[in-house]
Design goal:
CATH superfamily of the largest domain: Intergrase catalytic core
Shape: globular
Strand content: under 5%
Helix content: 40-55%
Mean pLDDT: 86
Largest sheet: 3 strands, antiparallel
Distance between the termini: 68 Å
CATH topology of the largest domain: hpI Integrase, Chain A
Length: 332
């Protein structure tokens, strides 16, 4: 335990601040992503503020469940959001405070509803992509053409695009797993142009004394020069260099993922598509269209990076004629 509060009591604003600082240190030691770090800190802060001037070790299952119930009833948050809040609170106790209380194993997680994914037809996908321009069009085509998640797309590095083998290596996808997916032939000229643009931008950064990108885990210490190499640069870099909150160094980060979300919304309206469209809709459409084309579900599972084939099987429920291509008796 790396946090020892004065007199063993954690109360007041000062105690909360020190506790949050300790949480940041623990998450960075464990290599949590910046997104997870921010989300966990938000939930831990809200939980502590809901019980002012009380040592969190004096709280129990009743207070945790009351907090989570309040999120569901008053805040009307989704089950996944409720479970994220629970994960943050459990992290506070187990990893920051260094205590494991008996009630931890008895806290019930919210049950996530089973919902069918929204899938666009191939005609709708074409109409959507036709209303996108520039880098947003390339990124959207990448997600639909490969089945990559949004963050996997914006975090793609130059070195992980293999034009000789027509494949893309997805690094540290969901669950920290690497996988390979195809590189669509029609996307090759666009990605070549993007990487050429990155090369010019990188040379300008180096000339200006910058040129670093963030490297995962201990690679920055093991390979000090790698952060300035072209291969590690993002294929979709941010427009400007920014200060990295993790270590205070100036780096060029990747494109803000919210930019694509906004572009997709505009394209959806322009194309007259009634269905809700997000970046994940493109991934759902990728999987469904492959299965419709007759590809084996195990192949689709590997391309998507699903741990269990049961996760991939949900796409058999959204095919045009149902699972197993069953023909309705009305159409006989």
């Amino acid at each position: 335990m790396d946090y020892q509060p004065k007199d063993g009591v954690i109360t007041g604003e000062d105690g909360t601040s020190r506790l949050l600082d300790a949480a940041v240190r623990r998450m960075r030691v464990a290599h949590y992503s910046l997104r997870t770090e921010r989300a966990y800190l938000g939930w831990i802060r809200r939980f502590l503020l809901a019980h002012p001037r009380r040592d969190p070790r004096a709280l129990g299952a009743v207070q945790v469940e009351t907090f989570l119930t309040g999120l569901a009833v008053e805040g009307r948050v989704a089950a996944s959001t409720q479970n994220q809040a629970l994960a943050a609170i459990l992290f506070l106790y187990r990893d920051v405070l260094g205590v494991k209380l008996a009630w931890m194993d008895d806290v019930v997680r919210a049950k996530r509803p089973q919902r069918l994914p929204t899938v666009l037809s191939q005609q709708e996908v074409r109409a959507l992509l036709a209303h996108l321009e520039g880098r947003m069009a390339v990124l959207a085509k990448l997600l639909y053409g490969t089945g990559m998640r949004l963050m996997e797309g914006v975090r793609l590095r130059v070195k992980d695009v293999d034009f000789a083998r027509n494949e893309i290596t997805v690094r540290e996808g969901k669950g920290g797993k690497d996988r390979r997916t195809m590189l669509p032939g029609s996307l090759v000229p666009m990605l070549v142009a993007e990487i050429e643009r990155v090369q010019v931008l990188h040379q300008q950064d180096l000339a200006g004394g910058a040129g670093e990108v963030w490297l995962p885990h201990a690679l920055a210490r093991k390979y000090p020069a790698a952060a300035r190499e072209l291969g590690w640069q993002y294929v979709f870099p941010a427009r400007t260099i920014s200060l990295d909150p993790r270590d205070g160094r100036w780096r060029r980060h990747h494109l803000d993922e919210a930019m694509l979300s906004r572009a997709l919304k505009r394209a959806q309206l322009a194309a007259g598509i009634a269905k809700p469209v997000t970046a994940h809709t493109l991934r759902h459409s990728f999987a469904t269209h492959l299965i419709e084309s007759g590809y084996d579900i195990r192949t689709v599972q590997e391309l998507l990076g699903h741990k269990d084939v049961a996760t991939t099987q949900i796409y058999t429920h959204v095919l045009n004629r149902g699972a197993g291509a069953v023909l309705s008796p009305l159409d006989r």
